[in-house]
Every structure is written in structure tokens, then in C-alpha cells.
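Thread title: Can someone regenerate the structure for this chain?

I was given the following input by a collaborator and told the matching C-alpha cells would be attached. They weren't. Posting the sequence so someone can regenerate them.
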Amino acid sequence: MIAQTDSSYLTTEEILEDILQEPVGEVDESDLYEQLELLMLNPINLNTASVDELLKIPIMEISAAQLIVEHRNKYGYFFSLNELNTIENLDKSVV
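Best answer:
Regenerated them for you:
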């Protein structure tokens, strides 16, 4: 996911390792890795993404996607991914 600009930078491997540590249910880990790699190459822009686009993120649930879009519509564009922490009722595992 991307916002307008973010000074923090992690490598693809660091992000994938972090996400793969989360429980993912019955999802095949290799499929998940491929999905995440595709998202790393083609990030979803939080400032323009629809709920459906956000749901392409493997750990994203519909309630979280709706909260993100509602917050953006009410307060405007995100300047940093850290702003996701300010969204009330958003599961912090999504951030």
C-alpha cells in the first residue's frame, strides 16, 4: 500500500516475512507469497483505492477496507501509512 510519501522504507523480503508471520488460515503459503510479491510490484494507492481494490490485500477484511475508505473520504488523502493507526476500530494487524 502506498500513501503520498512515506519516509520509512522496508525491503520486499522484510515486508513479506512480516506478513507471513501472521496467521493466514487455509491459504497456501506459496500462493500468498505470489500475491504479496505482485502487490509489492504494483502497490495499491490508499488515496485512490476502492474497497474492492483494498480487498486484494490478503490480510484485508471488508470492514477494514470500508473504514480506510470512509476515513479517506472524510479527512482527505493519507500522507503516511502511519495515519492508519489513527482510524478508530481499525484492526492494528492490518496496519
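The helical segments are 12-20, 29-41, 51-54, 62-75.
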